[in-house]
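Entry 14. Structure prediction run on the chain below.
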Amino acid sequence: MIHIDLKGKTILVTGASNGIGKEVAGFLMKMGARVAVHYGTNKTSADELVSLYKGTDSKAFKADLSKEEEVYALVENVIDSFGKLDVILLNAGVFLPHSVKQNTEDWFSVWKKTMDINLNAVGLLTKLGIDHFITAKEGKFIFIGSRAVFRGETEEYLAYAASKGGMVSLARSVARSFGKQNIKSFIVSPGFTRTQMAENFIKTHGEEKVLEEIALNELTQPKDLAPLIALMCSGLMDHATGATIDVNAGSHIR
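Output returned:
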């Protein structure tokens, strides 16, 4: 039985109503953390997750991360509700195909939407988090990156790879710039992970295609990332600040 003590920790998890975010948020609450469960549209899923861990005083918060004003409001509402934030887990993102075979206007529309959610919102949340952590004299960021940053992506996902590359550079820069102010920053870099997003890919291309490129016999699941992220939240990995931890079933080894 894994137990990583997170009692007293207040953690914002973006994109926590499904996929990696939902599994991780649930695990953090199971370890005793109070979690701000962010969701974009799936209120039912977010509320159901919070109801499973009533004793943690966790709460669901809605925000459309493509809208600047809602990003500001998210952080303000979380701090107003909980009084503090110890960790911000930047997980929310989109994985939208936009083949170069499309006309350029449609291609660039997907590029801009991807950047708004995957990078611009992350940048704003990071700035707001830094402001709060400097006042609080401590804090942690955990950025969910992608193996696409290090091995590249297919031509349908140029925006996704570029957005995650920007995120990783941001995370490393935060670690270098704010360590003396007791602010730590980590990157978790998953490969293909069995989520709804992945299931859509599997329906189109088949599971065998995905299994062929990994070293293990089964796809990574969101639960495989949760203990690592909890350890980062706990403070037991502080001297790994700035590090990128790969969790990709051996499909890309650096």
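The radius of gyration is 17 Å.
Filed with the rest of this week's runs.
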